[in-house]
Write a structure and sequence with these properties.
By secondary structure, the chain is of the alpha/beta class. It is built from five helices and eight strands, in the order αβαββαβαβββαβ. It has a five-stranded mixed beta sheet with strand order 4-2-3-5-8.
């Protein structure tokens, strides 16, 4: 069986949102213009004129040796201790880039929490519910999606909303 065709510019994330009937907007930026930015997430937020507290990055970690996905504000950092606690685990550590790309089907810098190739446990930072709309990667560099936190929870099959940041 062949791969499903997507519209030009579409990604597995946007295809899944469309299949679920979830309303979202796409936001674009020039990834080449931000290559040398010390904090890519904050640079993307600035380029899109979006408050960094409502823009979320997708990080892949190992929780007691099993891959998991943490979705945290770009303006903060992931607390591995908080992630382990949210997962009911003893330990969490960041996954290798090559593993993150293989498990998600996306390239680092464009990993979306929606439409990943492997079914990972997913955890969303509780601050997301403070916003009417949040922004996450659409699955490729230069493309973001904006949607409600509730729709993100449904589309990404979020397991738990927890305080994942250390700040």
């Amino acid at each position: 069986m062949g791969k499903k065709k997507r519209p030009p510019g579409g990604t597995p994330a946007t295809a899944k949102l469309e299949a679920l009937g979830i309303k979202f907007s796409t936001l674009t930026y020039d990834p080449a213009a931000l290559e040398d930015s010390p904090s890519l997430g904050e640079a993307v937020a600035a380029a899109l004129r979006v408050d960094a507290s409502r823009m979320f990055k997708t990080l892949i970690a190992l929780v007691d040796g099993e891959p998991a996905c943490a979705i945290v504000p770009t303006s903060g950092t992931l607390s591995l201790k908080a992630l382990a606690k949210a997962a009911g685990a003893k330990r969490a550590e960041m996954a290798a880039t090559s593993d993150a790309e293989r498990w998600t089907g996306y390239v680092t810098g464009g990993i979306s929490p929606v439409g990943q190739t492997k079914r990972l446990r997913r955890f969303l930072d509780a601050s997301a519910i403070d916003h009417g709309l949040v922004v996450v990667s659409a699955g490729k560099r230069g493309l973001q999606i904006e949607l409600s936190p509730g729709d993100l929870q449904v589309a990404a099959e979020i397991e738990a909303v927890a305080k994942l940041g250390d700040g």
